[in-house]
Structures are given as structure tokens and as C-alpha cells.
Amino acid sequence: MGWDGEDAEIGGWDGGVFNGGASVWRDRAASTRRYAKGAYVGRGQSTEVAGAVATAATQTAHAVLAARGVDEIIAGMRSEPEVLTQAVTAAERLFEAARS
Q1: With contact defined as beta carbons under 8 Å apart, do 94 and 70 qualify?
Q2: pTM score, two decimals?
Q3: d(Cα 45, Cα 85) in Å, to the nearest integer?
């Protein structure tokens, strides 16, 4: 699909549940910023740059939260209300801890 790579087990990189974890999200954020600089900045396309910066911010936030366990919480979800309640509670604790 465009670059050489290697196969890995699911969750095999950086301990991430979704095969890539935090490092993939950080790489996406960096790629988004590079694209904004190369494609939009020189043309003065401020709206596109703003969108790219916002996208990179969410990718970076996901990287931080993935490293702290949000992907594990999501992977453990099932449709039972008790399990979903536990997931929301775990996410609340994670987000609160991320503030400090």
C-alpha cells in the first residue's frame, strides 16, 4: 500500500490494542502537520490549515489517551449496560488522571 513494512500480531506494537497504539496516532498527527505546511501554508489557505491543526490535535490527544489505556477500555466494550457503565467510568477516571 505504498511502503515496506512488517506484519505483526494484533496489539503487537507498543502494547496498543489496535495494532499501533500511541505511536501510530502521533505519526498521523505529524503527517497531518507536514501536509498542512506543504499543501496549504504557501497558498495562504488558513481554513485548511485550521482544519489540519484541529485534526492533528485530536490525533495527538488520542495518542496520549491510547498510551494511557483508552484503546483497552474500548476493546473491552460489549453491549451489556453494566459493561458499558464500567467502560464510561474507567474512561472518566482516565480522563481525570490525564488532566494532571
Answers
A1: yes
A2: 0.61
A3: 43
